[in-house]
Amino acid sequence: MPAASPLRPGHNGISLRAADRARHAIDRAMALDGSVLSSIFTSFDSGRIAADAEALDRDAARLEGPLAGLLVSIKDLFDEEGVTTTAGSAILAGEAPAGRDAEAVRRLKAAGAIACGRTTMSEFAYSGVGLNPHFGNPGNALDPLRITGGSTSGGSVTVALGIADVALGSDTGGSVRIPAALNGLCGFKPTQAAVPLDGAFPLSGTYDSIGPLARTIALCAAVHAVLSGTSPDNGEAVEKPRIGVVRGPLTEGLDEKVSRDFDAALVKLADAGCTLQDVDLPMLDGYGNVNRILVATEAHAIHRHRLDGLETAGDARVLKRIRAAETFSAAEVAEARALRAHAVEAFRALSGGFDAFVMPTLPTVAPLIADVEAEFDRLNALMLRNPSALNFLDGCAATVPMHGDRSLATGLTMFAAGGADWRVLALAQRAEAALA
């Protein structure tokens, strides 16, 4: 299993204490303006973080863990014992504290990671832009007037600002990859069934998955190993990988910067030894409507008993998306499930001829918050367009930065059919090196 503990002695023999790293993270967070801090975290208990780090320093067994001393911010839809899970919603703020950690959180802590604050998110994880009327709208790490992307909005900023090493996120339609790409980070969405969902507040049981955001793919891989309980298959290493370059609707309408960065990335991948071949994905026909029907239907079933309360205490944009389920017939839902199942199989068959596929993670750079407030439906759909296609296909996907400077970030997605998680991570790490 890959190890990523920052407490291991370096080449100079110096080792760090978990308490020192925790104090540094706390100092960075406390240096932020209060309004910025509250837009990133729903809860930041510095005493708890410091105490957990000090306990780790006294625990010889956990200090041997692969993630010992790693600071992980927790999206506020994962249960932590003794803490109320809000899922980004004011209506859940008065609920009883969780009785135990979510399984993903438990695995991270058992591996030596330290929970470093609970991060803001789109209400119930139901948008790709990251706006939240209850906790505020966190600003993009590269331009605070622009969106972070969602729904793991606060989590992305904790990593980009150096408060946390990793953000634990969920991904139903892009909620790990969108904020990772917009903030110049790496992010990994595993095969949907790879990481247990126990103790994670659901949006859609069909699509929900759990993955990390970090500065490097290597760190994402180390965290995924712990979350999934799996290890890399070194036999999957490919000397000259066959990469399908997605053409068609997912690479149309790109803004100038994304188009330029994507073209440059393809050249670098070819120079790095990849064999590139243009490919269409006809099985994606109608995927947006299928996703809309299935996610809304499952979200409506989860929130049916609180819809009246959400009329006054919820995000109206999210409630509108949930209530859309009331317009779908049972026949439409059944047809949507059948269409998705057929598409998953068709994509798996096509994937036999390739080691992975690539496309831009998003068609544009981060929009301005003011523009998203004014045109939520259009811009939310635009942010979800590319990433949600891979949830529809039950694929696994990693995003790596493909912008070459400190201007607004763009991302390159490497993806494959479900089950190819470690191959995608290996090829994404190769792409990350080529694009650096």
From TrEMBL:
Protein name from the UniProt record: Amidase
Please list the GO terms describing molecular function.
Answer: catalytic activity
Q: What residue stretches are annotated with the Amidase domain?
A: 25-421
Against Pfam families, the record matches this protein to: Amidase
